[in-house]
Amino acid sequence: MKIMLQIGLVFGICLLGQIIADLLPIAFPGSVISMILLFLLLVFRIVKVDHIQKKADFLLKNMAFFFIPAGVGIVAEFDAIKNSIPALLVVVVITTVLTFGSTALVVQGIISLQDRLERRRQRKGRPS
Amino acid sequence: MNEIFASPFFGITLCVLTYEIGVLIESKTKLAVANPLLISVVLCIGVIKLFSIPLASFNVGGELVSVFLGPATAVLALAIYLQLARLKKYLLPVLAGTIVGSVVSVTSAFWLCRLFGLDVALTKSMLVKSVTTPFAIAISKNIGGIPSVSVAAVVLTGILGAVFAPLLIKLFRVKSPIAQGVAIGTSSHAVGTSKAIVLGEVQGAMSGVAIGLAGVVTVGLSLLFTGS
């Protein structure tokens, strides 16, 4: 599909996501709703992979770039946090390490358990 | 001079140039700290401070860059869709991981802020540090935090996650690419996900799934802190 149409399709889905977000009684990010919408469109094959492939590749490969202004925006909050910066930094570092570690260990633990169960089931299923 | 800085081209050009410098430094040094996003943010702030450019002027172009965050998050759906078989098979570990991770994030932030004697508003602002910005702003407002502080904490956490993800993977000996992705997305939302995509397709997709799940779980958890 032509790149211009791909751009239009992705932006249109984002607009729809924003409209739904505004209508919802609870606060839910429009970008996450757009992600769910696009996912459903793909699952039900209304949108095909090559309808958005080029646009998606461009956005995903350069995702970090789009966060630059948000990062620079920290300077605006400097006054609000300047007295607590060392404490806040320590909190951010420790919690990020703890969150990463606990998540990774839980996922990896259950996956290896699941794989082991499956292997055992396969062994039992095989005629000996 | 100020009119030039207020042109949308100034902010965009500064972002692109500093980001490319970051990419160059990363490819030359191959150091984890040499993260293009981190380098770009530091250089942009340096330029703004050096020439006393108002943040609002930078943001004229900056907002045009930020607009793409929505579409960039949305197209994660494609990465997730391409990993659908894996996601179905490992839905239980992915769900369990994001729930445990989000609980650890919120409770550890709460107790550490208490430990350092930070005031209630600041503490509440920090609870949402691991979820993506729109979730963080909404939750922070709901529970009586300071949204702008939450945004700063979210961005810092994201950059930290993106920079140290490879190191944390080694530290916790995370071999499974699924576990790597879910851990990155749960601990450092969309900014971390930008690094997960670089690590691999599976990591990127799982990190994308974790952004949404961690956000929803954290909305639920935050209700516990509304009253206190």
Structure, explained:
The complex is a heterodimer of chains A (128) and B (228). Chain A has 128 residues and is an all-alpha fold. Chain A is flat, with a radius of gyration of 22 Å. The termini of chain A are far apart. The model of chain B has no long low-confidence stretch (mean pLDDT 92). The relative contact order of chain B is 0.12. With 228 residues, chain B is mainly alpha-helical.
What's the helical proportion of residues of chain B? over 70%
Percentage of residues in DSSP E strands of chain A: under 5%
Number of helices of chain B: 13
Tally of strands of chain B: 0
Kindly report the average pLDDT value of chain B: 92
Major β-sheet annotation of chain B:
none
Uncertain regions of chain B: pLDDT < 50 for 5+ in a row? none
**Mean pLDDT metric of chain A:** 90
Biggest pleated-sheet summary of chain A: none
Question: Topology of this structure?
Answer:
The complex is a heterodimer of chains A (128) and B (228).
Chain A lengths: L2 H21 L6 H14 L5 H13 L6 H5 L1 H8 L3 H41 L3
Chain B lengths: L1 H4 L2 H22 L6 H15 L4 H12 L2 H6 L1 H7 L1 H6 L1 H25 L4 H7 L6 H11 L3 H25 L5 H23 L1 H26 L2
Helix pairs in contact in B: 2-3, 2-4, 6-13, 8-9, 8-12, 8-13, 10-11, 10-13, 11-12, 12-13
Core attributes:
heterodimer, A: 128 residues, mainly alpha, 6 helices, B: 228 residues, globular
